[in-house]
Write a structure and sequence with these properties.
It comes from Dyella japonica. This protein is α+β, with helices and mostly antiparallel strands. The protein contains 15 helices and 7 strands. A 4-stranded antiparallel beta sheet has the order 1-2-3-4. Strand 2 and strand 3 form a beta hairpin.
């Protein structure tokens, strides 16, 4: 396969996204530096041939590391592989999960790695499934594991999502034959129809934000001003904000699609203040040391604050999103626009908020009265 001039930024920018990396000319015998093109940016991938085996290593996002630095790191890593000091043995499900968490740390940061680690350690590491060899894993094993989880169906779906992501990573990195993916692709998620019905008034939202730790207040204020998923807001970087045009780019989140949304004056002021004196790669909302917030932090803070405020027991960060979507729909904003801003589908809007749309429709029809 012909090499590609991936050391040139214009060449990388013109490449179409795909799972397999584009490799450049060899850096040393059997050693190559590759570029995996993503929908947004890309990552450096090193490949070292050792006898008949191929070793792969992710070296981080392209926008944080130059070609020269990645090549230097690849050469150092390749020497360790040939010397036998770089273990790439990923055989069991737990091995695959830990490799995936390490990749999340390199590619997405500590917050994403911590979130994946917490889910997998809670559900996989202590279960017999974790000790199974990847090449022996069967759909029946996965169904039994899921059945053994003592939690609601929605939580089981989230645990399954994290495990499948780890298993797909194992396929991507050639730790297991791609044909094994059929074992987990055949398992359908539970259909969860419960509606998030904790609505907070504007006064309640303001009171809740004020009762939270000061460092969390900007993040929760963002959720009150924009109907984002909490995790999507937590992962926003300065590079996502275009203060000149008043637009915010949302990367891939649960909806698996990026989008650009217009900002209100209040939201623009908030995000611009958070972006001040930060680089494009830094998080808009973060601890003083620059690390992003994780779900467990804001979850614990809200649980502690909601009782004294007399808020519903199920109040959580998602309540801000639900309340915002509710306000937009009852204000008369059409459901398609709300779906686009919120990053969801019309089907989901109608499923969770159909009762509001019916009520609003009845009110609109009342204006047609001839009386």
């Amino acid at each position: 396969m012909a090499s590609i001039d991936i050391h040139k930024a214009r060449v990388r920018d013109a490449l179409p996204p795909r799972r397999d990396p584009y490799f450049g000319a060899p850096l040393a015998p059997g050693l190559y530096l590759g570029f995996r093109r993503l929908d947004e940016g890309g990552t450096w991938i090193a490949r070292q041939r050792e006898d008949r085996r191929q070793h792969f290593q992710s070296l981080g996002p392209v926008h944080l590391k130059s070609y020269e630095d990645a090549a230097t790191e690849a050469r150092t890593w390749g020497k360790r592989v040939l010397a036998g000091t770089e273990s790439q043995e990923v055989r069991t499900v737990i091995d695959a999960c830990k490799a995936y968490v390490a990749d999340r740390r390199r590619e997405k940061g500590e917050a994403a790695a911590h979130d994946a680690h917490m889910r997998l350690s809670r559900s996989v590491y202590t279960h017999a499934l974790g000790r199974l060899r990847l090449d022996k894993l069967r759909a029946a094993d996965l169904r039994q594991w899921r059945s053994d989880l003592v939690m609601a169906d929605a939580s089981k779906n989230r645990m399954m999502g994290s495990l499948v992501a780890a298993l797909n990573f194992a396929v991507q990195e050639r730790y297991v034959d791609p044909g094994k993916a059929m074992e987990w692709q055949a398992i359908k998620r539970f259909h969860v129809t419960s509606r998030r019905d904790v609505y907070l008034t504007r006064d309640q939202r303001r009171a809740l934000i004020g009762a939270l730790p000061a460092e969390l207040q900007p993040l929760m204020t963002c959720l009150a001003l924009l109907p984002l998923r909490p995790s999507a807001a937590a992962h926003l970087t300065v590079g996502h904000l275009d203060a000149r045009t008043g637009l915010l780019k949302i990367g891939k989140d649960k909806a698996h699609a990026g989008r650009v949304i217009p900002l209100s004056a209040d939201a623009l002021v908030l995000l611009s203040a958070q972006a001040k004196n930060k680089t494009l790669a830094e998080h808009l909302f973060a601890h003083a040391d620059g690390t992003a917030f994780v779900r467990q932090e804001w979850g614990a803070a809200i649980r502690e604050a909601r009782g004294p405020l007399g808020l519903p027991a199920k109040t959580c960060a998602y309540s801000f999103r639900h309340s915002g979507i509710t306000d937009l729909l009852t204000a008369g904003v059409d459901s398609l626009t709300v779906a686009r801003i919120a990053g969801t589908s019309l089907v989901q809007i109608e499923r969770h908020y159909g009762h509001l749309l019916q009520r609003h429709g009845a009110q609109a029809l009342a204006t047609l009265s001839l009386g």
